[in-house]
């Protein structure tokens, strides 16, 4: 041990200075490298998080805009239920696009937005079934109108045919009174049928117009309910997309627009009834 100490004492101070300086330099490099590695790791994680947020934002923007578009189509479909023919089309088909878009939205939305959309989808499903029930009398009347219209056209075709036979009978200078009387009776019979079917068709149209007004009144009441549900959904969609500027003012504006639209619709119904 004494020999080792003597050996270390024999090392010149200049060498010890170099060794110490080298150790200090190496320590500084190691510390610097560790710091750089940490900063690089943090930067890479930040970049990865940023890219993930950008991908989610892009996906959400596409899905959200599609859902809003399909929501508008769904409202239009509901207003057209009285005109639809349930024997030729699926009355629920017009809402399938909205239901599909809403399902996608719930996969990428924030939890609060997904919950609100889920409630809105349920309300639209209930509304569709309710309005289909209200539209059934309209569809029956539309069927009656179609039947009376077909019968009227058939009777009119016979009136035209018999009238042609009567014209030919007169132009051929025939004098068979019984034959002409038969043509006359046939003409009067078909004309009476046409008149009856025309009257029945007109009455059916009156019933349809009355039921349609009632349907529209019920529709605006129901749409007002789901419209109030749409407001928080659209507000949260804007929030998810980063469009958070003055959300309270946006909500207030939407509510005012809805009430204005409802008032104008009520005024229109009153005019239709007075007319």
Structural summary, described in words:
The chain is an all-alpha fold and about 280 residues long. It has helices at about 1-10, 15-80, 95-110, 110-170, 175-240, 245-275. Helix 2 runs antiparallel to helix 5 (about 175-240) and helix 3 (about 95-110) runs antiparallel to helix 4 (about 110-170). The longest helix has about 70 residues, at about 15-80. The model has no long low-confidence stretch (mean pLDDT about 80).
The total of helices stands at 6
What separation lies between the terminal Cα atoms?
121 Å
Helix content: over 70%
Beta strand count? 0
Assembly status: single chain
* H and E string: HHHHHH
Rg for CA atoms: 41 Å
Instruction: Give the overall form.
Output: elongated
Mean pLDDT across every amino acid position: 78
Which stretches are low in confidence, meaning pLDDT under 50 for 5 or more residues running? Answer: none
**What proportion strand?**
under 5%
Main beta sheet, described? Answer: none
The secondary-structure class comes to: mainly alpha
Describe the protein's topology.
Blueprint: H1 2-9, H2 13-79, H3 96-108, H4 111-171, H5 177-240, H6 247-274
Helix pairs in contact: 2-3, 2-5, 3-4, 4-5, 5-6
Q: What are the salient characteristics of this protein?
A:
single chain; mainly alpha; 88% helix; 275 residues
